[in-house]
């Protein structure tokens, strides 16, 4: 149901022993967060006819996040803005 939620409530359903934090972010920061997460996808060449793997197995899957309540698209025909280590690789 909609309403306030406490960090302890979220921690109860969080399976991993990591530190759980709530953060306030701007729209621009959310976009960059999603750009970083999109690094899990390989670049797909629409001109190729052979099968191309969508998921980059070298990407640390724990860095892939989905943000609920935000509508967005990932264009897998464009290069990833971030490399596997999380460094900005493609500034535009």
TrEMBL record:
<dbReference type="GO" id="GO:0008663">
    <property type="term" value="F:2',3'-cyclic-nucleotide 2'-phosphodiesterase activity"/>
</dbReference>
<protein>
    <submittedName>
        <fullName>2',3'-cyclic-nucleotide 2'-phosphodiesterase</fullName>
        <ecNumber>3.1.3.6</ecNumber>
        <ecNumber>3.1.4.16</ecNumber>
    </submittedName>
</protein>
<dbReference type="InterPro" id="IPR008334">
    <property type="entry name" value="5'-Nucleotdase_C"/>
</dbReference>
<dbReference type="Pfam" id="PF02872">
    <property type="entry name" value="5_nucleotid_C"/>
</dbReference>
<dbReference type="GO" id="GO:0008254">
    <property type="term" value="F:3'-nucleotidase activity"/>
</dbReference>
<dbReference type="GO" id="GO:0009166">
    <property type="term" value="P:nucleotide catabolic process"/>
</dbReference>
<keyword id="KW-0378">Hydrolase</keyword>
<dbReference type="InterPro" id="IPR036907">
    <property type="entry name" value="5'-Nucleotdase_C_sf"/>
</dbReference>
<dbReference type="GO" id="GO:0030288">
    <property type="term" value="C:outer membrane-bounded periplasmic space"/>
</dbReference>
<dbReference type="InterPro" id="IPR006179">
    <property type="entry name" value="5_nucleotidase/apyrase"/>
</dbReference>
<feature type="domain" description="5'-Nucleotidase C-terminal">
    <location>
        <begin position="2"/>
        <end position="80"/>
    </location>
</feature>
């Amino acid at each position: 149901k909609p309403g306030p939620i406490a960090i302890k409530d979220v921690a109860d359903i969080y399976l991993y022993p990591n530190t759980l934090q709530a953060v306030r972010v701007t729209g621009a920061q959310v976009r960059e967060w999603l750009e970083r997460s999109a690094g899990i996808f390989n670049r797909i060449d629409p001109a190729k006819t052979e099968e191309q793997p969508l998921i980059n197995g070298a990407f640390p899957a724990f860095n892939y996040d989905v943000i609920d309540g935000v509508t967005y698209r990932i264009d897998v025909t464009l290069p990833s803005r971030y490399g596997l280590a999380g460094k900005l690789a493609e500034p535009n």
